[in-house]
Amino acid sequence: MPADPRAVLTRPAPDPDHTVAYGEHPDQIADLREPAGGGPARRLVVVVHGGFWRAEYDRRHTGPLAAALAASGRPVAQLEYRRTGQPGGGWPNTLTDVLVGVAELRRLAAAAMPGRVSTAPPVIVGHSAGGHLALYVAATAPETVGGVLALAPVADLVEAHRLDLDGGAVAELLGGGPDEVPDRYAATDPRSLVPIRSRTVVVHGEMDQQVPVRMSRDFVAAARLAGSGIAYFELSECEHFGLIDPESAAWPTVAAALRSLEEDQRPIDAASPTR
C-alpha cells in the first residue's frame, strides 16, 4: 500500500465528461464518465462516496476510482448528495437524495451518453458511509438496484453510534442516538433491514481504523441468517482507503467483485467465500 493511504483522497483525476442534476438543490448532482473504447452499452456503475455523511467530504475524492472504472469500459456516475453540516443535510434529505439519485441516474446517464448505458438497473459501489447508503437503497428500493458492492460499509448504525465513529457522525446524520430516535434507526440501519434481496458483495480490510472490520463480519453473518445472498471478502493487508485506490494491492479484489456483480445477476449462495 502507499506510504500514506489517504493520498488517494487528493490524487488528481481527469475531469468528468458530464455533470447532470437529479434535483433542484446544488448538491443533487452527479458527475458522469464515458466508458473508454467502443462496444455495446453496459450497466451503469453508480459510485456513492463516504466521509461519514459530512459536508467536508464530497464526490471528488472518488475521482481516481471512477476514472479507473471508466477506463475499463464502464459508464460511471459519481453521485453527490446533501450532507451533514450544510443546509438540508442529515435526516431525511441525505437518505432521500441517494434514493432519488440512484433511481434517476440510469435515465440521465443514458441521455448524456447515448448508446453507452444499458437499460439494466445500475450497480452501486459505496464506500464507508457510502456503503451504508448503498445498502440502504438496496434494502428499501431494490427495483432500482442491479447489485451492491459495499466497501468497508458502516453497516450497523447502532453499533457505529455506540463506538462514536468519527465523533458523533451517526447522531448528526439521524438527529440523535438510537434511544432518542429509534424509528429513524429502524428505517435506515442495514443491520435491521436484512434480508437485503439485491445481489451484494461486501469487501473490508482487516487493518481498517475508521470502520472496524467486525462490523462487516457481524452484518454479513446476520444477513445470511436472515436469508440474504451475500458474499464477503476480507483483506488481511488492507486498511480503509485502499479499497478505493486503483493503485493499491486491494484493487484486483475490488475489480473482481464488481465483475461478479455485472456478469452474474443470480442470487449469491450464502456459502460464498469469506476470505
Automatic annotation (TrEMBL):
GO terms for molecular function: hydrolase activity. Residues 31-220 form the BD-FAE-like domain. Residues 1-21 are annotated as: Disordered. The keyword rRNA-binding does not apply. InterPro entries: AB_hydrolase_fold, BD-FAE-like_dom, GDXG_lipolytic_enzyme. It comes from the Bacteria. Keywords: Hydrolase. The keyword Hydrolase applies. PANTHER family: AB HYDROLASE SUPERFAMILY PROTEIN C4A8.06C. This is Alpha/beta fold hydrolase. It comes from Micromonospora musae.
